[in-house]
Write a structure and sequence with these properties.
455 residues; alpha/beta; Alpha-D-Glucose-1,6-Bisphosphate, Chain A, domain 3; TATA-Binding Protein; 3 domains; six-stranded antiparallel sheet; 14 helices; 22 strands; 36% helix
């Protein structure tokens, strides 16, 4: 009987519980299907620190080699290190990780040569169809040669490339606390930061895919608590937190207060525009008003997109954008094959902070201009009905505009909010921003009352 992959093949990647939902046997078929769909004669494969990752990556490599592709195994790496290898070697790539998910999960993030994303509309649905078919009848055995499998260390080249993109030579000495969450930041940070004038205070750098200290998901405030306390205890200039596969980076200031990813997006956008005047900057529709304002003030063109990395990367390629940022702390760079790298964003923050004398809180204040609710999730039985109720409440009001680029965005002169349905859960996600905190509070309660109303 053919495997049912509907539970593990998501919009942009493969992700599920090992071995309950998928295992090395399926991983081998994914490797074979990946080569068939991409037509690649060579691929690059990397993996994170989860206990199941080396075995799954090895099985994928076997499946790919059996189809005639030469496989370059780069071993332990962050997701953006895999993108670097894909870009630098001009090879399609596969990264074995489940990002911030619990230890029993694993997954595959796939890309074409030059780190171009593979999602449902760009090859993932075809890969799924082949794996389902072959799980019943076996993968075909091509008549030609079997590919080779070779190992290659790319960490040093990755670190050198990142540092070539940001001038850190003249920064003042900084004390920085880094919480790697037992994820891949513990592998990449020591090499990337080597030689920089930084007093590095490492937290949870031991690679441990069981995440013994806290979830490797800095988007959840409870996972920043240890970092915030350590920054204050050390009298550090800032703190950095990476997620499990170290492609996202969160920043806290010298007081231990989180810095909004929108403020980081605006800061990096200003720096990138100084290098490429008049450039285009991508931001998703739930980043702060601060982002397009700063982009325009620095002579750039802001372009607003839907939420999600495939939309950002697609728009970057289409518009030739130099940089893109999301509220979830994904940061995309033209100089990095339009792929996301939290590490490069972190280097920009260090360069900006070290290039002047003031504290981080003062530096980011000009990029953080509004009050915001953060993302608030509500479990609802009927997403469409709740969305419609909210839309009807604001339709036709003076000075209020509605758009449905991604969910429902309602905008007034002094505030806006966005309400979006989750693609994977029965949730509505609400983000509110206004010129002052009292308006945010009032509007949040008003919208949540409609979202959570029982008919």
């Amino acid at each position: 009987m053919a495997a049912d992959l509907s539970q593990i093949v998501k919009a942009y990647d493969v992700r599920g519980v090992v071995p309950d939902q998928w295992d090395e046997e399926l991983a081998e078929l994914f490797g074979a299907a990946f080569v068939q769909v991409t037509g690649a004669d060579g691929i690059v494969v990397g993996h994170d620190m989860r206990p199941s990752s080396p075995g799954l990556a090895g099985a994928f490599a076997r499946g790919a080699a059996a189809q005639g592709a030469d496989v370059t195994l780069i071993g332990l790496c962050s997701t953006d290190q895999l993108y670097f290898a894909s870009g630098q070697l001009s090879l399609p790539g596969a990264m074995f990780t489940a990002s911030h998910n619990p230890a029993r999960y694993n997954g595959i993030k796939m890309c074409r040569a030059g780190a171009a994303p593979v999602g449902q509309d760009t090859g993932l649905s075809e890969i799924r169809a082949l794996v389902e078919r072959w799980s019943e009848q076996g993968a075909p055995q091509p008549a030609g040669r079997t590919g080779t499998v070779a190992e290659r260390d790319t960490l040093g080249d990755y670190a050198a490339y990142l540092k070539s993109l940001v001038d850190l030579t003249a920064i003042r000495p900084l004390k920085v606390v880094v919480d790697a969450g037992n994820g891949m930041g513990g592998h990449t940070v020591p090499t990337v930061f080597d030689g920089l004038p930084l007093d590095l205070v490492p937290m949870y750098f031991e690679l441990d895919g069981t995440f013994p200290n806290h979830e490797a998901n800095p988007l959840d405030p409870k996972n920043l608590v240890d970092l915030q306390a350590r920054v204050q205890a050390e009298g550090a200039d800032l703190g950095l937190a990476f997620d499990g596969d170290a492609d996202r980076c969160f920043v806290v200031d010298e007081h231990g207060d989180p810095v909004s990813p929108s403020a980081i997006t605006a800061l990096v956008a200003a720096r990138e525009l100084a290098k490429a005047p008049g450039g285009t900057i991508i931001h998703n529709l739930i980043t702060s008003w601060s982002v397009p304002e700063v982009v325009r003030e620095n002579g750039g063109t802001p372009v607003r997109t839907r939420v999600g990395h495939s939309f950002i990367k697609e728009e970057m390629a289409k518009s030739g954008a130099i940089f893109g940022g999301e509220h979830s702390a994904h940061y995309y760079f033209k100089d990095f094959w339009n792929a996301d790298t939290g590490m490069l964003a972190a280097l920009h923050v260090l360069a900006a902070l070290g290039g002047q004398e003031g504290p981080l809180s003062q530096l980011v204040a000009s990029y953080d201009r509004y009050a915001a609710s953060g993302e608030i999730n509500s479990t609802v039985a009927d997403q469409t009905a709740r969305m419609t109720a909210v839309k009807q409440a604001y339709e036709g009001q003076d000075d209020i505009t509605l758009d449905e680029l991604d969910g429902l965005t309602v905008t007034a002169p002094d505030w806006w909010f966005n309400l979006r349905a989750s693609n994977t859960e029965p949730l509505l996600r609400l983000n509110v921003e206004a010129r002052d905190a009292s308006t945010v509070e009032r509007l949040t309660q008003q919208v949540l009352a409609m979202v959570r109303a029982t008919d």
